[in-house]
Amino acid sequence: MNLFGHFISAQALYSQLLVGLINGSFYALLSLGLAVIFGMLNIVNFAHGAFYMVGAFVAYFLLHLTEIEFFGARPFADIVIFGWRFTGINYWWALILAPLIVGALGAVVERTLIKQIAGLDHLYGLLLTFGLALIIQGVFQNEFGSSGKPYPSPEALRGPINLGFMYLPMYRGWVIVFSVVICFSVWFAIEKTKLGAYLRAATENPTLVRAFGINVPLMITATYGFGVALAALAGVLAAPINQVRPGMGADIIAVVFAVVVIGGMGSIMGSVLTGFALGVIEGLTKVFYPEASNTVVFVIMAIVLIIRPSGLFGRVA
Amino acid sequence: MSASSIVTPHGAHAFRDAAIPFALLVAFVVAAPFFAYPFFVMQMLCIALFACAFNLLIGYVGLLSFGHAMFLGLASYVCSHAAKVWGLPPELAILSGVAVSALLGLVAGALAIRSHGIYFAMITVALSQMVYFVCVEAPFTHGEDGIQSVPQGYALGLFDLSKTPILYTYVAVIFLLGFFLVYRTVNSPFGEILKAIRENEPRTTSLGYRVVRYKLMAFVLSAALAGLAGATKAIVVQNASLTDVSFGMSGEVVLMTLLGGMGTLYGPVVGAVVVVAMQNYLAGFGEWVTVIQGVIFVACVLLFRRGIVGELGRVIGWSL
């Protein structure tokens, strides 16, 4: 294929398209969580990237549980049950446990810290969660340095699938399919179920919904926990692809903000579609004009802001 | 400058509230190099000016820019390039940095200013990240290496800036002029309109003010002042690097202003002094400095939102 005077192999195009779709999955999951949290709490969760990173680290800890020292002892080191030896918690369990653990952590953060600034200017939410992000990132950076830790992809998903025109590494295909399923389920749960209706009602008028006997503060805590659990899920998915690094959240958060700005706040489907689309565009830019691959998302954001200041799918800001 | 023209228009203690803290600030600037390493104080003054520029937006217009490092960093690159490659004298090199930052402020402001609150903050994050990547890729910034050994030259063609006392005087004058400009802006009719926008934007619009234009003017002024800080810093440290344009720097200036007191004149200076000193003296603790900064952020938001100077002003009953 010959475009813009470059000679580009179809193989390179497909593989960057795939990388784009993978990144798009992470953008979609992260911006989805941000949108859910923003809808309910009216705060932009600056700590989202940090929770994404923590999710990946929890998966890493679970896998290496037998090697972890607590006060000089290794409590999980030599557990043998009926001849079966415990060797750590694998990827599939991490996919469930990491979001649960991080979600619970998020709920605690909401109850103890974020709750106290309810009713203040929204900017304080941003500042508070930014401080949290610094704390979380700093602690991990101290403990683990800035180099990446390898996380193997699960055995069942190793090796490629032949799609006819290219070989797709099975794990990458899994990430894309799984993210699409999760995003669609969340959209369905919020837009089409009764619980989602409560949630949307509480977003519109929390006082009235409370008067109907629905526990709105609990709902707010659960929403925050759920949003950061989505971030943690993205972190677990990313672990076998991008390695586990303390800086992984800080690197991605600015792009995710741009995605949210382009998609428009408050639209679940909008943020998901924008996430995938921008991942693909970024991937294609890597093929055609690699120098701009880091900036293309921000350039698109600038153009969208000129044409539609409230974002592609957003309500008027 | 006659005394009456630096007095704030309001309050019975206007002269006291304006003159005494300003005298203290001048005294601090004069005395500091005798107690601390002058090179360190100069960097501190540049960062303090940067914080004052940032505070002009958050404190007086209510706009939280989470990407202000783009103005600081780009100006320091442009100033370094102008001084080293084009061989311009320091004044012109600094001015070219300021001009480029003001221009960037105009473009970034025009894009961001129509959005409010957190939306505005996210747009500035994204725009500054874009400027960061441009600085990584652009040939004139030399990527990871940055621009090294920038010549300091002769101030006004006469005074050798490689001599520390002369350089210190030069930086101190720039800092005090910059600070005074912020002071005059805040206490001018223009500043009153900015404060009106902060308090109630729709009402200001209904009074007939072109709110977007005022916000944009404040944004450009803040960008230019941040550029002045960055360009001056480049002359002091004789290099420009990616640190000054990075997201971390954008976060630090928010921290300084929040800690010192948003919307107070002297808060950003106090905050900058505390944060820079903390970084310097706790440098041995590595990444724990980041954790401490995070804790200060959380503590400021939850416990004392007025900041150091704001609380102090409340206790002694002065408008600082």
Characterize the largest beta sheet of chain A: strand count, sense, and whether it forms a barrel: 2 strands, antiparallel
| Structure classification of chain A | mainly alpha
Distance between the termini of chain A: 43 Å
Biggest interface pair, counts: A-B, 47 and 42 residues
Mean pLDDT of chain A: 87
CATH class of chain B: Mainly Alpha
Tell me the number of structural domains of chain B: 1
* Cα-based radius of gyration of chain B, to the nearest Å: 19 Å
What low-confidence regions of chain A span 5 or more consecutive residues with pLDDT below 50? none
Distance between the first and last residues' Cα of chain B: 20 Å
| CATH architecture designation of chain A | Orthogonal Bundle
Give average pLDDT of chain B, whole number: 88
CATH topology of chain B: ABC transporter involved in vitamin B12 uptake, BtuC
How would you describe this protein?
The complex is a heterodimer of chains A (317) and B (320). Chain A has 317 residues and is mainly alpha-helical. Chain A has one domain (22-307): ABC transporter involved in vitamin B12 uptake, BtuC. In chain A, 66% of the residues lie in helices and 4% in strands. Chain A has eleven helices and six strands. In chain A, the strands form three sheets. A two-stranded antiparallel sheet of chain A has the order 1-2. A two-stranded antiparallel ribbon of chain A has the order 3-4. In chain A, strands 5-6 form a two-stranded antiparallel sheet. In chain A, β3 and β4 (84-85) form a beta hairpin. In chain A, α1 packs across α9, α2 (48-63) runs parallel beside α4 and α2 packs across α9 (248-263). Chain A starts with a strand and ends in a 10-residue tail after the last helix. The model of chain A has no long low-confidence stretch (mean pLDDT 87). With 320 residues, chain B is mainly α. Chain B has a single domain (3-316), classed as ABC transporter involved in vitamin B12 uptake, BtuC. Chain B has helices at residues 14-35, 38-60, 69-84, 90-112, 117-137, 164-186, 189-199, 201-206, 211-237, 247-260, 267-281, 288-302, 307-316, and strands at residues 154-155, 159-160. A two-stranded antiparallel ribbon of chain B has the order 1-2. In chain B, β1 (154-155) and β2 (159-160) form a beta hairpin. The longest helix of chain B is centred in the last third of the chain and has 27 residues, at 211-237. The chains are: A mainly alpha (317), B mainly alpha (320).
